[in-house]
Amino acid sequence: MTEASSLTGRLLVATPALSDPNFDRSVVLLLDHDREGALGVVLNRPTPVGVSEVLEPWAALAGEPGVVFQGGPVALDAALALAVVPGSGTPPDSVRVGPLGWRRVHGSIGLVDLEAPPEVLAAELGSLRIFAGYAGWGPEQLERELEEGAWYVVDSEPGDVSAPEPERLWRAVLRRQRGSLALLATYPDDPSLN
Asked: What CATH number is given to the structural domain containing 153?
């Protein structure tokens, strides 16, 4: 796989045919994709657990809703944080690389080091979201799922990471696509009732 074929920074949008309940109507941001496999977080699975309950120092920086999101079925006891840093752009468009404690994933979206003091990053972050767990694929596993039609691959936007109504993200991402993908945004929750 070449860097050009990497899907890092793109979204995987679950197709209606995807039967795995862990990913039903999910929108996954790929944080890494290479020959070794892929890693991402589900952007639209809020939990009832407030950020203040598990990572209190970061609660003031968390966007709405201020809860922890289930990033996927793997390592639910581990936390990842994503944040948008306005104006950080993608090199070479911008010389800025972002603040200390933040590592670019794609464009202005990056991973936050939760060991860093929140006050160091507070002035730089536009939005922050905390995820428990992640979604992972072994070598060639994601490629097989793509061939089977389990996922649509679309471009991400910085606002996807901090969508204030995450339960609407699946439809919103599909709606902004061109052609037949936009029509799928109206796909009923239960097609048997149609």
From this structure: 3.40.1740.10
**Cα(59)–Cα(181) distance, integer angstroms:** 36
Question: E strands of the chain, at which residues?
Answer: 10-14, 27-34, 37-42, 46-50, 67-70, 74-84, 102-106, 109-112, 127-137, 151-155
Residue 55 is which amino acid?
A: L
Burial of 160 (0-12, 13-18, 19+ CB in 10 A): buried
What is the span of the domain harbouring residue 16?
A: 3-193
Please give the structure tokens belonging to residue 174.
């599909």
Higher-confidence position of 186 and 59: 59
Q: What is the CA radius of gyration of the chain?
A: 17
What 3-state DSSP class applies to 167?
helix
DSSP 73: S
Phi, psi of 31 (to 5 degrees): -90, -25
Q: Tokens for 103?
A: 């590592």
pLDDT over 80 (residue 88) = no
pTM, rounded to two decimals? 0.90
pLDDT at 184: 77
Rounded distance between C-alpha atoms, residue 54 and residue 75, angstroms:
16
